[in-house]
Amino acid sequence: MNINNFKKAVLQGIPLDLPKPKPFDTTISHAPVRKDSLNEREKKLALRNALRYFDPKHHKVLAPEFAEELKKYGRIYMYRFRPDYKISARKIDDYPHKSVQAAAIMLMLSNNLDDAVAQHPHELITYGGNGAVFQNWAQYLLTMKYLAEMADDQTLAMYSGHPMGLFPSHKDAPRVVITNGLVIPNYSKSDDWEKFNALGVSQYGQMTAGSFMYIGPQGIVHGTTITILNAGRKLPDGENGLGGKVFVTSGLGGMSGAQPKACVIAGAICVIADVNSKAVEKRHAQGWVDEVYTDLDELRIRLEKARKNKEAVSIAYKGNIVELWEKFADKNIKIELGSDQTSLHNPWSGGYYPVGLSFEEANKMMVDDPDRFKLEVQKSLIRQVNAINRLTKNGMYFWDYGNAFLLESSRAGADVMKEDGTFKYPSYVEDIMGPMCFDFGFGPFRWVCTSSKPEDLATTDEIAAEVIENMLKDSPKEIKQQLNDNLLWVKSAADNKLVVGSQARILYADCEGRTRIAEAFNKAVKEERISAPVVLGRDHHDVSGTDSPYRETANIYDGSSFTADMAIQNVIGDSFRGATWVSIHNGGGVGWGEVINGGFGMVLDGSDDSDRRLKSMLYWDVNNGIARRSWARNKEAVFSIKRAMKSEPKLKVTLANIADDDIIEGCFKK
Ligand SMILES: NC(=O)c1ccc[n+]([C@@H]2O[C@H](COP(=O)([O-])OP(=O)(O)OC[C@H]3O[C@@H](n4cnc5c(N)ncnc54)[C@H](O)[C@@H]3O)[C@@H](O)[C@H]2O)c1
Prior knowledge:
By secondary structure, the chain is an alpha/beta fold. The protein is 43% helix and 12% strand. A hairpin with a 3-residue loop joins strand 1 (125-127) and strand 2. The longest helix is centred in the middle third of the chain and has 24 residues, at 370-393. The site of nicotinamide-adenine-dinucleotide has 33 residues, from helix 7 and strand 7.
């Protein structure tokens, strides 16, 4: 479709005449059929809800079609309305717009739905099995139209993918405010989600899917590289590096697919299982995993060769992770590092495939016999944990990868608990990300070049590297290692060919780094060294944006890890300090009801307004979380917030006094 027709199609929104029904495309990955969670009354309600988007003259045709979709797939996606044009991150001027900020948002959300980026693009799922950008195609079409028409004194309110409408605001207000999956707390069980989502009134936005900030698996490669490097440093001979050491894990999906690439960047051997052959083939074709095996004995021989030669290589097993763990445990194979990245935040609807069933059998059973399926998942987790326990006894360092592996295993009755009621294994946030990154303010800052030109991305890489090199000259010793890891990352990022979709880069940075890099980008846009605006953002998986007791706030030990004030304060604070769009979600990563997470997007167009906004918003966006972490007595955060207060007299944070343990214990002596 040529550019003019594309623009026309966007401006049209929901077409007045019905487009032809679309055949079901079997060449791409589709979301698993969702379980039938509605009674007849609720099914009628779901249908009425869906028809709200369309002129009544079409209802006779659409009602039976949508009823059939609900019956067949458990959801109404409105497949017929999927546009005929290719959805991808085009250059910003291709989007019809009155507001440059709104056009940048169109680019970002389009990237989340690109066939090459999204996990189940036709069901509008970006990653994580259920991480949705929209619930249906009508919401997509309407949102694009609103964004194309809006001006810089309007704000689009979005309720779980549904564009409620444009409301008058002002130029410093966010252009879009997004909420996903927010419910009354007592109704936040996964069955509630199934029902609300099937009714078309709520969606699971994951972390960055529903906030249009997903940048493909690169987003997670950097964090995973940092995690693997630092996990390696925890081994008894950690100072010798990762050459010849083995990391075993699972998942070649949206985020998990980053593991083999990251492991190779870190210099180790990765052995990774996935049951979905489409996921394996996709990552293999992209070069993110080097070799694929279906025979475990052949795989074992290959592994030993790689170990002997200290090759940095990634080896996929097309099959169930339990089979892989059991094989290694039975054969007493030495494994140094282990984790799991199946989608256990969503265990009963396709996030975890139990051992002993084929992929197809599992997909059928989760719909036809959900109770039996649940039992199979639990049995499988028990077996998986048993094998992992045997290998950790033999020296393997295992960590939970923020996918609710330990949580669901414990619920399944697997042997993962210590006597004191805590988990046997740490989460990667407790041991690594929390103390080494988040408490110092380092988190997954990212940017996207809206020209969609690789040359602009190369310029931003150079600018970011220069900023870090300058910071290293006078940075305190506490953060030198982080800065050095990040410098190495950004300098080799282009060679590692990490871009899938938009011209994006991720870089762990602290408050000072984020601000200095953003200022330099804005200046470069103004001076036309970068040819179009740059979008800033971050993963929700960060210092301040997310309250998640089993992940981002797992290293908060003052009892407040189950509160969500920080995430809510953060999104409110970002929105009045100049964010271009903000979002706050229930769920994401560890599962519905288990986390509140938020994020922002910010367009740098080279203006003085952008310069003012970036300084005001980024400062809060990082220091809010450091302040909370310092109040929880985390020593790295105490160090960081004191340092921040020294350099900014207007920052005055309440500091914690530390009680003497003897005084506390004395109060409870019998
Ligand atoms: N890497 C991180 O830092 C990080 C951060 C946030 C969240 N996570 C969590 O990691 C999980 C994975 O995320 P994703 O986006 O890759 O999800 P995904 O659903 O795209 O991928 C998971 C993959 O696991 C495979 N799988 C499921 N059960 C399996 C089994 N028993 N054996 C082998 N393969 C199996 C699936 O086929 C799928 O391809 C999610 O729970 C996510 O929230 C990880």
